[in-house]
Amino acid sequence: MSDLLWGLVQVAVVLAIPYLGSHLVSEQLLHRLVTEEFKAIPILDTLARVEGWLLGGLLLYTNLDASYFDLEHLFVSGSRWGLTIGEFLGQRANLFAYDPSPLFELLWPKLFLPWLASVLAIILLPALLILLCRYFWRSRQIWRALLGCTITALWSAWMAVYLVCLVCWGLYVLNYWVFAVLTFYLQFRKGQGHGH
Question: For residue 132, what pLDDT band results from cuts at 50, 70 and 90?
Fold first, then answer.
């Protein structure tokens, strides 16, 4: 039972990090750095987020092979997800621990979907964001808008990597207790449905 409690504490900590980080990035950092006009143009935020999610997905695709996501090997003692919470946060869930150089190899068409995603994330979306910022701002505000797009894209890329890795690591940490927690959650939701 203590293993379950320790696993739940660890999962609760790593679940709190993106929530607090999101508040810090969107409410504090972006609020101070970008203009009100930037927030009034949702296409910039949306495109920057799409770019970030694509980059995060591509970093996972190029740096982690399929064995990282093989359910047969996920729960075994030698699993690639057998990490302490510190190792998880410092290595697997850390966007900046991934090597970006393989992304550029994807620009040479071998497989269509990875090639298309890399062209979008590395060339088209950044170019489109620059053009849109140039279109909406003619003054020095363009640099603040580009900074806002960059922060949004980096945060989204980090979230993509973090959430995918969190699912795999959380499954490993909770192990067979995942099913007990899932059953408890489903019963809780079912009970809430009857209460209305």
Answer: very high
Encoded tokens for 21: 């980080």
123-149 burial, b at 16+ Cβ within 10 Å, e below that, comes to: eebbeebeebbeebbeeeeeebbbbbb
3-state secondary structure 168-180: HHHHHHHCCHHHH
Question: What does the pLDDT look like over 20-45, one tens digit per residue?
Answer: 888 788 777 777 777 677 777 889 98
- pLDDT beyond 80 at 154: yes
Q: Are 151 and 33 in contact (CB under 8 A)?
A: yes
In angstroms, the CA 122 to CA 92 distance is 22
Which distant-in-sequence residues (6+ apart) come within 8 Å of 161 by Cβ?
A: 56, 59, 60, 93, 94, 95, 98
DSSP state of 70: -
Q: Dmax over Cα atoms in the chain, in whole Å?
A: 62
59's tokens = 């970093």
Whether the Cβ atoms of residue 117 and residue 64 lie closer than 8 Å to each other? no
> How far lies 79's CA from each of 70, 74, 83, 168, in Å?
10, 5, 9, 10
- Please state which of the ranges 7-11, 60-64, 89-93, 155-159 shows the lowest mean pLDDT: 7-11
Q: Are 99 and 58 in contact (CB under 8 A)?
A: no
